[in-house]
Specification:
There is one protein chain. The protein has helices spanning 9-20, 42-52, 84-98, 115-118, 132-141, 161-168, 207-214, 251-257, 269-276, 299-314, 332-343; strands spanning 3-5, 25-27, 34-38, 61-63, 103-108, 123-127, 145-146, 174-176, 188-192, 197-201, 218-220, 245-247, 262-266, 290-292, 320-323, 346-347. The protein is α/β, with parallel strands linked by helices. The chain binds threonylcarbamoyladenylate and magnesium ion. Magnesium ion is lined by residues 148-149, 157, 232. Magnesium ion binds next to loops.
Length: 350
């Protein structure tokens, strides 16, 4: 049985006890729900891979208490030495700008971090999440939690406690219900070096914001870099519904794809109206099979709704889902396009 906990003191005490015993607890973050275990306990971390059916080549992110921000290098997790003075300062500037928050930094690791956590890589991914409930839990524990998104491997990330149960009920000790996630898309992941900021996974923080705060150019990590794991965020197929998903580039290709049993995911009311008003009513899907990411076309709202709506359409019994990405832009729109592209089983664009 998986217990559903709230944010009362007694609930967090129980969650902390479970984690100290090496059991798995799903926790809310501002991005998506994470499946947490004590990061320095390899036995507990192994259970994460088991519950998610996640391949061992896919490294985990460490979630740190906010009180560690000023003392990152002395906590025995990240090794600042190989970065040099300039690299360390860049990390500190990025941390100052975006922590607590949806930025993950890949840094040289220390011996204390189990190889299982990093899939044998010499680096470790760390972030300070800003969800207040999970911060209270981390401060109580005083040690980092390893936490991937709380979905089965390859599936849609959970943005509500109910989604976590749908994915992992019976496989984990508890989930803390902290409400729907504020951002809804996984964190931006960067690897910081002395001279650059490499973008490993786009998220809600844009390249421009990273450049401004970090004082170095943002470069796309190359796909065949051996330091870059072949991991979810980077696998071609990920965040996938069970229903085949077709990604189109505009209203007319959407219209062309519409037929019996389809479900439609639009970016805005304007694009929905454009497509549906020109459609033979006999082909119009029922309301249960139509979703609009953001009526007014706001990328932040669309990001918040993306995984929930994909999940709803996946459960609608449709034979396939046709999705339209947000217009090309930076930041959140870029991250939404990235997730949709990986969720698609066949692609026309993006
Ligand atoms: O927003 C998030 O980041 C969420 C919440 C729960 O914090 N977590 C999340 O974790 O998305 P996950 O496991 O689904 O994605 C972690 C990804 C890995 O797949 C990999 O791409 C990258 O982080 N990663 C972790 N450690 C790394 C390392 N040492 N080097 C390069 N990439 C790493
Ligand atoms: Mg994931």
């Amino acid at each position: 049985m998986t217990r559903v906990l709230g944010s009362a003191e007694a609930d967090l005490d129980l969650a902390a006890d479970l984690l100290r015993e090496g059991r798995l607890v799903a926790v809310p973050t501002e991005t998506v729900y994470g499946l947490a275990a004590p990061a320095l306990d390899a036995g507990a971390v192994a259970k994460i891979f088991e519950a998610k059916e996640r391949p061992l080549f896919d490294p985990l992110i460490l979630h740190l208490p906010a009180s560690w921000m000023g003392s990152l290098w002395s906590r025995g997790i990240a090794d600042g030495e190989p970065l040099g003075e300039e690299g360390r300062q860049r990390v500190e500037r990025l941390a100052g700008a975006f922590w607590p928050g949806p930025l993950t930094m890949v840094l040289p690791k220390t011996q204390r971090v189990p190889d299982l956590v990093t899939s044998g890589l010499p680096s470790v991914a760390v972030r300070v999440p800003r969800h207040p409930v999970t911060q209270r839990l981390l401060e109580r524990l005083g040690f980092p939690l390893a936490a991937p998104s709380a979905n089965r491997f390859g599936r849609i990330s959970p943005t509500r406690a109910a989604d976590v149960l749908e994915e992992l009920e019976g496989r984990i000790a508890a989930v803390i219900d902290g409400g729907p996630c504020e951002i809804g898309l996984e964190s931006t992941i960067v690897r910081v070096t002395a001279s650059s900021i490499e973008l490993l996974r786009p998220g809600s923080i844009s390249a421009n914001e990273l450049e401004r705060a970090g004082g170095a150019p943002v470069v796309e990590a190359s796909a065949n870099d051996e330091r870059t794991p072949q991991s979810p965020g980077r696998l071609e197929s990920h965040y996938a519904p069970r229903t085949p998903l077709l990604l189109v580039d505009d209203g007319s290709s959407m219209r062309a794809g519409i037929g019996e049993g389809v479900a439609l995911l639009f970016f805005s009311d304007a694009s929905r109206d454009e497509v549906l008003s020109n459609l033979d009513p006999q082909y119009a899907p029922t309301a249960g099979r139509v979703r609009v990411l953001s009526p007014a076309g706001d990328p932040a709202e669309a990001g918040r709704n993306l995984f929930r709506m994909l999940r709803e359409l996946d459960g609608s019994g449709a034979a396939r889902i046709i999705a339209e990405p947000p217009p090309l832009a930076t930041g959140i729109s870029h991250a939404i396009r990235d997730r949709l592209r990986r969720a698609a089983s066949s692609k026309r664009t993006v």
